[in-house]
Amino acid sequence: GGLDNLPVTNTRYTMNQEQMASLTPDIILMSSDKEADEVQEHVGVPVFVAAPDYTIDGIKKHITAVGNVLGKETEAKALNSFIDGEVKKVTDISSTIPESEKKKVYFATRGAMKGFYDAKEGRDFTRTDNKYEPLTFAGGINVAKDAADGNVNVGIEQIIAWNPDVILVACSTPEDSGVDFILKAPELQSIKAVKEGKVYNTFYPNCRGSPHDRNLINMFYIAKLLYPEKFKDINFEAEGNAIMKEFLGVDGVFSEYMDYLQFPNTQST
Predict the structure, then answer these.
(1) What is the reported pLDDT for 107?
(2) Contact partners, residue 155, CB within 8 Å, separation at least 6
């Protein structure tokens, strides 16, 4: 049911503009302006480009913009208010952690399914992001914070030099975990996180953009991974379900997502 029964107008590699036109939409939302003019001309429908990012400010601006275009300003304000409340639940606690006690974290935001570096995709374990707000809101210190802006590939030597306390690995399906590879890689054995076994799967932050609901969930998840005692009173599964209900309008979606991925059930505290 649900999304499975809806037509697929485009994938990562192809776009079916004829099918878009056949669905007679009033407006088309796109996350990139790369093909916006072409789609607008060929489909004959206004295209609105609204590209979100990881930042809470960026997320809220995106929601406000889409709400204005769709005539859903009230709903957009309510959703932004909900987001502020969720962030506050975490930052009220993480803001009390002294800087000297915060965990240093390396986040492989594109996973490690193909090892250190995938020449075809130009990413995997050595691909990180210098700014990932869910991590910093959770009280983690992003070891790549002074690296080049945005997604960046770094050298193995640099990751070893950063010597993170914790390594997070983006994971999108039960089969694509790179945790075992990292724990066993001879090149990484001097890293504190590897020596102490503190290498964890976490939610994949990229999927046709930067999914707002999943990145809010990541914020709670990372907080509980890094500081289980400080965040012990937060019910992770309940927060995940509340977030997905707010965004998707359906109850219990996150519980099913946890079961599908498997790792949240074993890693969440």
Answers:
(1) 96
(2) 126
